[in-house]
Amino acid sequence: MPFDFPAYRAAFEAKDVPRWLAFYADDAEWFEYNSQDDPPRAPNVMRGRDEIRAFLEHIAALPIAIALADEVLGAERIAFSCTVDLGNGRRIIEHVIADVRDGQIVRHVDVEAWDPA
Description:
Blueprint: H1 5-14, H2 17-21, E1 24-34, E2 44-47, H3 48-61, E3 65-73, E4 77-85, E5 91-101, E6 104-114
Parallel strand pairs: 1-6
Antiparallel strand pairs: 1-2, 3-4, 4-5, 5-6
């Protein structure tokens, strides 16, 4: 089953947690590297839908705007950029590579760059 990137983008940008979470396999892992809190030696790692759900709920509650772009879609891997507008003149730019199995993400790796505070 191919990955439905247009539906994923819509759920992600809308911060619609149930629709967004449905794109992650039960055993999915999400690795987050950011220059502020989660450097390469100690990424934030979420394992399984429960941990990913908690993270998505946190993101959904924030007063931010999210836009996905520059997608590259393959049968077993996708990549895209994500721009987060923090609403205070600052932005986060993320680049994501995700492994896909049976139309769901099983491994999501994102690297973030933040505007300075």
